[in-house]
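Fig. S4 source data, part A: sequence.
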Amino acid sequence: MAIPESQLETWSHQGSIAQSRDTYQTIRTALQDSRAAYADKSFNVFLQGSYGNDTNIYAESDVDTVIRLDSIMRSDLSVLPSEQQAAYHQAFAQATYTFSEFKAGVTTRLSNAFGAGNVTPGNKAIAIKASGARRSADVVVCYQYRRYIRFLSVNNQEYVPGVIFPSTSSGEIINYPKSHSDNCTTKHQSTNSWFKPMVRIVKNMRSRLVNDGVIAKDVAPSYYIEGLLYNVPNVNFVADQAQAVYNVLYWLATTVDRTNFVCANERYYLLRDNDPVCWPIANGPAFINAVVNLWDGWR
């Protein structure tokens, strides 16, 4: 028995908007405070994750915020001819301000704003505990990463913008949150606004599977669910909600070769082992099978 339309409709709705928005604004204001040790540096604060991509559901609480240092950068020049690499090195001087100084300043600023006991540096992000109306939040501290396509001068260059940050378990992580967000929005527009509600439905199905003990909590992070559905051809996202869910699940279940699935940023393959930005190969099919079984066995 398929999941009823009424349940799918409930699951398709976005989670807390006002509370998440207010949480983000509170954190953003704290990070931009003129008393911060890094206040005179160039940096940017923005959203990423489910709330930033409009795919958050009620079961999710964390508001993911990024603070990116723009005063320094790491660049991949590997595709540039030697003369363009030389032009790049001539244009940019060696940085004197370090990322370690920046991250220490961010940690101090958040501790001063929210209390040291509520701020915990973690593997990839700084966690901020919920308090009152403020939701829990993660702050990723990073700096610019550029994958260059062309560099003739500062006024004539082309690159893919990304971020880079260290993790305690996986070393340096390079990712492309802007490309991920932009591509998800394009996918949403190309599917007559069905992509993001579909992501929310599948994420709610994941929550049901976790609550029922069918899968572990960390098997299917939201980032990978967005990437998984990004690979589904647009023709499957039809106006009838139940039919759209069936089409998406059927396509995922019957696609034998998933090795060429890409992350939504289109910079990495989705399913790969031993890569901190990719979904472990066994977890993707396991999640697909669990979601299909939930659909087929709904009672």
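Fig. S4 source data, part B ends here. The beta strands are 43-47, 63-76, 119-121, 126-128, 137-153, 156-167, 171-175.
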